[in-house]
Amino acid sequence: MRILVADDHKLVRDGLRPFLRELDAQAEIVDASSLDEAIAAIEGAAPCPDLVLLDLMMPGMDGLEGLSRIKSLLPDRPVVIVSGYSSRDHVQAAVQAGAAGFIPKTVGGSAMVNALRLVLSGETYLPSSSFFEPSDSAGAGSHPVGAPPPFDRLSRREGEILAQLIEGRTNKEIAQILSLQEITIKVHLRNVYRKIGAANRAQAVRIALQSGWDIPPVAPVVRSVG
User: Fold this and answer.
1) End-of-domain residue from the set 131, 154, 172
2) Are residues 206 and 111 in contact, defined by beta-carbon separation less than 8 angstroms?
3) Are 161 and 173 in contact (CB under 8 A)?
4) Among 126, 153, 212, 219, which one is most buried in terms of CB atoms within 10 A?
5) Higher-scoring residue by pLDDT: 20, 206
6) Closest Cα to residue 162, out of 104, 123, 114?
7) Which of 8, 5, 2 is nearest to 80 (CA)?
8) Confidence class of residue 90 from pLDDT cuts 50, 70 and 90?
9) Is the dihedral of CA 93, 5, 131, 152 positive or negative?
10) 175-202 pLDDT tens trace
11) Where does 7-155 have alpha helices with state H?
């Protein structure tokens, strides 16, 4: 797999590398810090990138014009916007312009990997409402109250566990974070799968990412030393 990461911040590009290796340990990751560099990387190399991660604010982008230029070169390859700003209008406009997904830079690493896997499977990834900026033109108070079906059937604890699952955490890690027994996590997950119509962990993550469900805040993993 060949992945092009186009972002003008080297810290961001370097920070994405370990997570992209989870998609393919042998992936060739190509950097670009401007639109011109991204285009040169596409035109001057073979094979073409299998996946492009694109920052809308880097030099030369001129908003969605840059995305359109990239898509004209790679009409059949997924281009995913990775941005520090994610108003609902920006997300919708990017998808309408051909983006296969829109990932806020505030998303966790494991959740980003799950989102990219969804994109590589041929789906479109949109962030949940929890990642939209309050400057959203619809107004911060216009978000619907309550979770969308079937997530409105989840208990608070089930929602917390599903959020941890999306972050890629194991049952043991989730149990440690929530101060529960591992068997309790398994029971809750069975209920989650039944309520949202998932057959397994991967399908539960896929359904949650596609739904626009407002993912609850995820606590960090606390690991003991020694």
Assistant:
1) 131
2) no
3) no
4) 126
5) 20
6) 114
7) 5
8) confident
9) positive
10) 998 999 999 999 999 999 999 888 889 8
11) 10-23, 35-43, 64-73, 88-96, 109-120
In a domain, 181, yes or no: yes
Per-residue DSSP letter, 151: G
The residue to which tokens 């520090």 are assigned: 84
Based on the fold, state whether residues 172 and 112 are members of the same structural domain: no
Structural domain range at position 149: 144-211
> What distance in Å separates the CA atoms of residue 96 and residue 193, rounded to the nearest whole number?
32
| Residues 98 and 163 reside in one and the same domain | no
pLDDT at 143: 38
Look up the CATH number of the domain holding residue 75.
3.40.50.2300
Q: Do residues 42 and 74 make contact, with C-beta atoms less than 8 angstroms apart?
A: yes
**What's the mean pLDDT when you consider all of the chain?**
83
* Same domain (yes/no): 148, 121: no
